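[job 0412] stage=fold_complex status=start
inputs:
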Amino acid sequence: MISDYLEALAAALSFDRPLSQRVRQEVEDHLRQAVDADPAGGGGLEAQQRAIANFGEPHAIAVQFAVVSLAQQTKRVGAAIILLIAGVFVAMKARVAWYAIMRCAISDDIKIVSGIIGSIDRYSFWVSVIIGIVGWVYVSGYRIVAGSGAAYRKQLRRFFLLCAAATGSLVISVVSDGVLTTLRLPEAGLSAEFLVPIFSMAIEIACAAILVLQIRGITQRATATAALLKT
Amino acid sequence: MHSMEGEMLKGHLDMIVLAALSTGPAHGYAVIQEIRRRSGQAFDLPEGTVYPALHRLEQAGWLTSRWVTAESGRRRRVYALTRHGERALTERRAVWQQFSDAIGSLLAGTRPRRRPA
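[job 0412] stage=fold_complex status=done
writing structure:
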């Protein structure tokens, strides 16, 4: 009977596998102790039923854990935003340093276009940095309290907005970098010296893609948690 | 003594769990037993609600936890207060004391109204 209950609880917590495993072990120990301490003794079916009844419905417990798990994931995403933006920054700076070392100058034909795109790139990147830091500070500062509902949802909405804005700005910056790199390509040709800019662009694209996936993941988790809260 | 209403306890669950752990590290089952014992059996929480609270408090940095192996051979998660947790408990105790004194003073001057027969 306890095994069935644990299976049901683990299934209800399947949205977070490490959490599900940990809770399962903790609850199993709890229920076995409760059965051992049952005044009727014997550890029979009735003692198991009482222990399970005292513990509560798996769904009700899963709902409380879902909120805790979501909060933990949002904090992770908040930190990931900063790290991924830093990754883009390092790749960007490495490419610029490489151009300087290799004395790669921009031809006069594309100077105006690359100047405009460069401005878009710079501004969108720094906007993503500022919004990313604000989002990270915001999400690091809040704490989930028992029974928090509307206030927590409001905090989450704000955080998602900040995440979306930071990610959008970063994507614009990476796309601008891609355009700038492509503009330089015909001048240098597909020579070995162009491997560094291509590699740095690959890092930037990977960072932006990981960030988009993180935001998608947290949005899906929030939707699943909201659905769990409604049922 | 009357058993306290679940909703009434929910708002104070964090403080109750922190207080139960103030005597030393304990696992979930022992925390629940400690809450019952120290409240004179008045706080009869649904046991399952304590575990999300323990996880939440750990996430907030107020508790730490580690696995130990019990005499029975089962793995057991033991929780302990951190310095942040001790500080949070002290703060909450002070706020609660203030609140309790104020309510006590307020109720001291009142008597239950008799209903007309």
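[job 0412] summary: Residues 27 and 72 of chain B are 14 Å apart (CA to CA).
[job 0412] exit 0
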